[in-house]
Amino acid sequence: MTLRVLHLIGGGDTGGAMSHLLPLLSALERSGCDVYLACLGEGGLARQAAQRGLTVSVLPMGGPRDPRVIGPLRRLLSMGPAGMGGGEAAAGRSPAARWDVVHTHGMRANLPTRLASRSLRDRPCMFTTVHSDLRLDYASVALARAYDGLDRATVGWVDGIICVSDALKALLIERGYPAKRLITVHSGLEAVGDQVGGKSRSGRPRIGTVARLVAVKDIDLLLEVAGRLRRTHPQVESVVVGDGPERGRLEALAFEMGLTEAVHFTGRLDDAGPTLASLDVYLVTSVFEGGVSMSVLEAMAAGLPVVTTDAGGVAEVVVDGETGYVVSRDQERGALAAALAERAAALLSDPGLRARMGAAGARRVRARFTVDQTAALVRRAYERCLAARGWFS
Predict the structure, then answer these.
(1) Each residue of 256-314: pLDDT tens digit?
(2) In this structure, how many other beta carbons lie within 10 angstroms of the beta carbon of residue 170?
(3) Rounded-to-integer distance, Cα 287 and Cα 285, Å
């Protein structure tokens, strides 16, 4: 059965949600779905989707809380694929009467789509993917609380809530979300090669991470770990790939700590692959990761052992003592930094251990974390919802 599926997301969301979503949409198309993407507001996501050949439309939205988007959204939802305009012709598809599934990502898309869908006569199956802890997504505590309240007030209008980790699912259950509607589907890599780790690396030892530079990633802790590692490995370099509102403060902090020559902030890179290939150890210092970080999967696929805090979804892919090390955050901060530095130092000092753990991580990603596996689970969730309604068009 061909499913007509519409995904909606904020057009400016080019972080982890984008790296999860676009490969998933391509995989859903390969599985036989007719997939469409609507971006609420301008941004780089629509361009990236178009480059993949996905059918994409941009709905004008002046800001994250612009109510004027409700009208165009309601028309798109009521018209079905025909409402995608020029994208329909470009895709060579015949317009169909309705959507089978509408699937949102992020609060910019969640709230207006839920409101716009309430008046639909033949309401499609409604899904949302929760990518992170909403309470940690905003610098403003008041805004985070407001969005959290609005999300919980309207989530009852959704048929399925896809969580990108068991940790996130457990968190939502604890907060009173309907457990029967929660489904764990881990992210997956689009292309997983045969890299088995242990490749020769020359020059100075290097640790690194790829992250948006926001408070929840706790790059301050990474800097403390980098400083401690310099005591045992004076030549070690630390690389931070990514950008965000915390970058200026973090660069100033690295200067204050005397780490300017030892820690390199690259900014956002379109292709982090060469940088990953130059590392010996991948480090995650996050307070919480809603899902299995795509950058962690990419690092493991590249044969890198991972040292991480038990930050939600990351601890579901990294096997402690097998593909890297998982360190509990439930300890005093100095002890946490010391424990992370100790694990990283052990790997830097032992090329054979790095090779074994890197190879084990690459095998684990190939076996359990591919985007086609992710797409199969998402499609199965769609089909269960449609079967319950008797929709088999």
Answers:
(1) 999 999 999 999 998 888 999 999 999 999 998 888 888 999 999 999 999 999 988 89
(2) 15
(3) 7
Contacts of residue 8, Cβ cutoff 8 Å, sequence gap at least 6 = 37, 38, 39, 40, 73, 102, 103, 104, 105, 109, 113
133, 287 Cβ separation under 8 angstroms: no
| Structure confidence at residue 97 (pLDDT) | 76
* Unique residue bearing structure tokens 């299995």: 292
Q: Considering the chain, what is the average pLDDT of its residues?
A: 90
Instruction: Provide the 10 A C-beta neighbour count for residue 218.
Output: 22
Residue 127's SS3 state is strand
Residues 109 and 124: their CA atoms lie apart, in Å, by 16
User: CA 64, CA 107: separation in Å to the nearest integer?
Assistant: 8
For 347-372, b where at least 16 C-beta lie within 10 A, e where not — what string? bbeeeeebbbbbbbbbebbbeebbbb
- What percent of the chain stands above pLDDT 90? 72
The distance of Cα 314 from the centroid of its chain, to the nearest Å, equals 11
Taking the C-alpha atoms of residue 309 and residue 343, their distance in angstroms, rounded to an integer, is 11
The model's confidence at residue 122, banded by pLDDT at 50, 70 and 90, is confident
